[in-house]
Amino acid sequence: MSFIETIKQRARSDVKTIVLPESEDDRTILAAAKVLAEKTAQPIIIGTEEEVMGSAARLGADLTGVQILDHTKSAEIDNYAALLAEIRAKKGMTFDMAKSLLSDKLTFGIMMVKSGDADGLVSGACHTSADMLRPALQIIKTAPERKIASIAFMFELPDKTIGEDGIILCADCALMQDPTPEELAEIGAESAASFEALIGKKAKVAFLCHSTKGSANHPFVDKVVEAVKIAKEKYPDVLLDGELQLDAAIIPEIGASKAPGSPVAGHANVLIFPNLEAGNIGYKLIQRIGKAEAYSFLQGLAAPVNDLSRGCSVDELAGVIVITAVQAQQMTASK
Fold first, then answer.
1. At 144, is the pLDDT very low, low, confident or very high (cuts 50, 70, 90)?
2. Number of folded domains that form the chain
């Protein structure tokens, strides 16, 4: 069974409400119809009845059972404005300023999650990552045990010899521009936790670099070496190693040759990129040239709010909705 089919089974066991604020995007309508048909989530589409159902009719999408919310007429808007003003009070936000911000569908949807009126949110099909993540980080904030958030991609590759039967997790691919060694170590630990929670197998984390075990000398290498040292000390239960070149991380014979004795080399299923430039280029190579199914999600937040690539397909969007639902299940269970 594929990764996403396994996640769908888990999502059906305790259906969660997921907010979709981008009702103007056809992919949102089609993905909502898909998760409704598969009974993997209960979508809440923010928009007018006329707008949403008009799009559904044009697209031939069955939205029977969907919840449509016109945020401009919501009875909760004053409560949300009061809470938002409280959250951002140190930044000088007033009730009136907060209420004005809630005219934005994305901000309104994030406040639904913050208030417990929805279990999670998925956006980004027609918002930049910066526009989507800014209110998420300001309102939801990071989980108590985390200092930073990062964006991971779960890939399912046609080549089942790579990673965990073709499944690998890569981070950070869309948020942290140039993480410090301490931040890189935390991204590694958070990525390991995400992999194990979603896949149910032990994470094997490789911190990637253009060097393997001292084969090159450069400040870029030093940063990764320091991150690995910090991660091993701070997260002793995480199976990790570095610095490793990509081939040494995922190809057994190369790992054995370049990093003999490594507990990870050649068998990594979690890949940590040294910076955003490498991460963004790397994930798109895996997705487009490697023909991998790709599902992005945000790690480290106190509630599940997930960003999409603006180039996502309907199936990828629906997959992220399902992942968000499973994240919500896990967060509920851990409380």
1. confident
2. 2
Is 87 within a domain?
yes
Q: Take residue 290 and report the two structure tokens written for it.
A: 């490697």
Residues 36, 125: one domain? yes
86-131 pLDDT, tens digit each: 999 999 999 999 999 999 999 999 999 999 999 999 998 887 777 8
CB 276, CB 177: distance < 8 Å: yes
CA angle 72, 308, 30 (to 5 degrees): 70
Place of tokens 């089942």: 160
Asked if residue 155 lies in contact with residue 170, where contact means CB atoms within 8 angstroms, the answer is yes
Q: Are residues 58 and 131 in the same domain?
A: yes
**Maximal C-alpha separation, the chain:** 64
Measured from the Cβ of residue 163, the count of other Cβ atoms closer than 10 Å reads 25
CB atoms within 10 A of CB 230: 19
Domain interval for residue 257: 150-289
